[in-house]
Write a structure and sequence with these properties.
single chain, about 325 residues, alpha/beta, Rossmann fold, six-stranded antiparallel sheet, five-stranded parallel sheet, binds iron/sulfur cluster
Amino acid sequence: MNKIAIALLSGGLDSSLAVKMMIDQGIVVTAVHFTSPFCNCTSKKAGCKHQAVKVAHEFGVPIRVIHKGRDYMRIVENPPHGYGRGLNPCIDCRIYMLKKVKEMMAGSRSSFVITGEVLAQRPMSQHRVAIRKIEKDSGLEGRILRPLSAHHFPLTIPEREGIVDRQKLLSFAGRSRKPQIELAEKLGVRDYPCPAGGCLLTDKLIAARLRDLFSHVPDYNLVELHLLKIGRHFRLHPGLKIILGRNKLENEQMQNMARIGSVRLHPVDFRGPICLASGTLDARSEGMTGEIMARYSQDEKNRYQIKKQILGKEESLIFVEKRFSKEAAAKLQII
Ligand code: SF4
């Protein structure tokens, strides 16, 4: 065993502290950061990825960013160890990431893995039984070192072999952040909180939309996953979902996310939402879509004019009235 390790670096405080503690023990660290369409803080200047890259840069360690792809989505669809409070398959998600790290280890000289886990901090994946299970199923038994919480776990191989000094490791546990904040001050590590809060798979609304997508669109694509995060979503029939922007920003985002062949509907003579339709838009559902768009307009008119575009193909006009009640629209909403 050598002094080279791979660290899971989320960009948050715990993993940053874990990495710093190991650097201070002379361990040569390479950081790995995972992203997914469900990261809740993906802006270029303030997202988790940005924070992780910034932390790695400040610590002077190389970082590799891995996108959780289609193989990850298969796990989200059907996780062997089930979901948390939303559609978050935390145990299988951790196993997935650690297996990827194990593959990286095979191609590098790294001999163990560092994580910022703290015993009992998270309900699903950080209790003792889950942690043991994750370690076993990832094939990394004895090789996952948790510097912040190490004294709550059996000796790892790097501790046993004297690569890491257990005396300098810690015994944090539970949900309090106070010990981490004190340690950060001591080690001169800055906190890099994600401004929006983490993983959207734990969000009940996203979970409902994702369930709907899984059951109606088995061959969904990445754009459809990103669209889950914006707008109001309605399923008008099993073969048709529509999304309405809730504000100017969402209308612009939807404009940009529409692809050739997408059906996009624009208000022509009123202020209201842009709509993206996904599926079969027959004459009846076209009228319903227009009426729901009119429902969400603050303008009061006898007749609303809407431009329907099949991108890259044709355009037409439709005319509707504001007939849908809020209650009727709510019944179709995916929430
Ligand atoms: S909260 Fe999300 S990213 Fe974190 S372990 Fe759970 S599923 Fe994975």
